[in-house]
Specification:
Distance between the termini: 58 Å
Strand content: 5-15%
Number of strands: 5
Number of helices: 6
Oligomer: single chain
Largest sheet: 5 strands, mixed
Structural class: alpha+beta
Length: 179
């Protein structure tokens, strides 16, 4: 027999099904990111969205006062505005099979010790998480908040992932963020 006789038709079918499933997920992810981007733009909200993951980047300067881990009043209002859009889109049933988990990451600049910044970044991530769950102004239903709670964790990353500017130096302002 020739090479064609040795090809397993079931394996070929399985590979084709896997390719179609991967294409479907990739298409759905692209649609999710576009929907997020369009809604933020429509509402005049300027947040960075990472195109490969759909992560949104919230600058700490808007959310927190210097060296503070509790959201400022303006920071809470900003989280409400952003999460009314973000939460309602990512928690929509049409994306159920796409999103398994959410992680709120706190990041700092390189001022201060690593351990201090690790603690600060974790507290800031926790602060945003708790605020989202407890706010009555972000447009999320109790069921959506429960879904968010079940799928979300927080982490502090200190200055492990600084933002580097075009000149190869750390952009201190941009490095202070919650994603």
């Amino acid at each position: 027999g020739g090479i064609a006789d040795n090809i397993d038709k079931d394996k070929i079918d399985q590979l084709q099904e896997n390719d179609q499933a991967y294409y479907g997920i990739a298409k759905q992810k692209t649609e999710l990111i576009k929907e997020l981007s369009d809604k933020f733009e429509e509402n005049g909200i300027n947040v960075d969205i990472k195109e490969n993951t759909g992560e949104i980047v919230l600058p700490s300067g808007i959310l927190f006062d210097t060296d503070e881990s509790d959201l400022s009043k303006d920071g809470g209002g900003f989280v409400d505005i952003v999460f009314e859009i973000y939460g309602n889109i990512i928690l929509d049933d049409k994306y159920n099979n796409l999103i398994e988990a959410l992680v709120i990451e706190g990041h700092t600049d390189t001022n201060g010790s690593y351990d201090y910044n690790l603690d600060l970044s974790k507290k800031r991530a926790d602060s945003v998480y708790k605020y989202i769950l407890n706010s009555e102004n972000n447009g999320l239903s109790d069921d959506q908040k429960m879904a968010f709670k079940e799928m979300t964790s927080t982490i502090g990353l200190s200055y492990d992932e600084p933002i580097i500017d075009q000149f190869g130096t750390i952009d201190m302002d941009a490095s202070r963020r919650v994603e």
